[in-house]
Amino acid sequence: MVVRGGEAEPLVLVSFLAGASEVGLTKKGASWYADFYEKGRRVRLSLGPNKAAAEALLSRKIFERSARKVLGRDVGFFPPVVGESEKPEPTLAEVADQFLSVYSPQYHGPATQAFYRECIKRLLPFFGRLRTSQITEKLVADYVAILLREGCKHRTANAYVLALCTILSQAVKWEWIEDNPLRGWHKLPSGPARVRWLDAEEREQLIAACPDWLGRVVRFAILSLMRRDEIRYMQIDQIQLSQHMIVLKRFKGSQRALTLRSVPLLPEAEEVLREQLRVRHIDHPWVWPNPATGKPADLTHLFEAAVKRAGLTDLRFHDLRHTGASYLAQAGVSLRIISEVMGHADLRMTQRYAHLAPGSTLEVLKKVGPLLTSKKSKTETAAIKNL
Questions:
Q1: Same-domain pairing of 220 and 128
Q2: Which residues, in sequence order, are bridge partners of residue 23?
Q3: Torsion angle of alpha carbons 352, 288, 247, 255, nearest 10°?
Q4: Beta strands in 193-314 (DSSP E)
Q5: Does 190 reside within a domain?
């Protein structure tokens, strides 16, 4: 039997063992693992973070097994010894913990990490104690049915299942499981995109219900069209007032490719920032810090409290972004420019604001209407083509 030790010289061990495949010694995360098949069943053993100690422990286990076999005690390959046992198939809770603590911090930004934490918090009560092989598409369908009966929206249920699918896909890459049971999962229809925006009266009503600094956040969110977490995690060095813009940095994809997005600043947005910079704590890098913790302020709960005080309903922080985009559309700004300002990857995402444009479609139809109700001459036909 040969034990492979990664790029190091192969470790050849003499044993009396028969019936087990070649053993691979590989590193996953911070620990070394022995990986092999015995009687058609895959076995993985955790051997600790130190490679030399892992090789020594593996050698001792093989020696003990061989000695027991010679003594006539057929207790199986790598039998349990005091304080040591074969690593069982992980539960979803164990996979999720590895995902949140090791994978997500390397490949996701703060907002995406928060998204997965929230989803996992909702998934664990149902799936947490299950072994990964026990999670089936039928079981997930039952889970979704429960969510819907409890009033969960299709879009939210899809988000939870997407998070579960991503975690299981990563477990496949880690070779913790053989296949992802949700690989062929079909999302629930989510219906038309939601658009809720504030009119002038509601806007002033909301700002009046906010503390001064939160009122500045609300005004800035409407004027900049930035996302909640882009505002929450915005730092001083991203602001370029001389260029009238904010430069947002984002790492995208598994290769952590750095992308930049420039957000143009209106004079009114710059004034809001100047007000905030005059009163913020200078020992924090964040533009909107929590004075008590030094961390970015929790905008969601504070905003929800202000909405309640203002007596408004069906309003989320993200609707401030919708509000700013709606104002631009009503002012006649093209959807292409709105899409660029909002950082939309696809112009179709901006189409939700098309109906707010100031009668663009109606104006065209008014020009065509008289031509459709009269005899068409060559001149009229040319006029139609030139519209």
A1: no
A2: 3
A3: -80
A4: 239-240, 245-252, 257-264
A5: no
If asked whether residues 336 and 204 sit together in one domain, one would say yes
Q: Over 50: is that where the pLDDT of 134 sits?
A: yes
Report the C-alpha gap between 124 and 120 in whole angstroms. 6
Of all residues in the chain, the percent with pLDDT exceeding 90 is 15
The residue out of 38, 70, 102 marking a domain boundary is 70
What domain range is 99 assigned to? 92-173
Distances (CA, A) of 320 to 65, 232, 323: 66, 14, 5
Q: In terms of pTM, does the model score above 0.70?
A: no
25: pLDDT strictly greater than 60: yes
Q: Do residue 169 and residue 209 come from a single domain?
A: no
Our count of domains for the chain comes to 4
Are 101 and 124 members of one domain?
A: yes
* CA–CA distances in Å: residue 351 to residues 33, 222, 228, 253: 51, 19, 21, 26
Strands 41-48 and 239-240: unpaired
Q: Do 285 and 313 share a domain, yes or no?
A: yes
Structural domain contains residue 332: yes
The Cα 291–Cα 293 span in angstroms is: 6
d(CA 220, CA 322): 13
Within a domain: 195: no
Residue 366 and residue 350 share a domain: no
Tell me which range, 256-260, 262-266, 330-334, is most confidently predicted by mean pLDDT. 262-266
Using alpha carbons, select from 136, 46, 120, 134 the residue that is nearest to residue 91: 134
pLDDT tens-place string over residues 314-351: 899 989 988 888 888 888 787 788 887 787 776 667 77
Q: Residues 153-175: pLDDT tens digits? A: 888 999 999 999 999 999 888 88
How far is residue 285 from each of residues 18, 112, 238, measured CA to CA in Å? 62, 21, 10
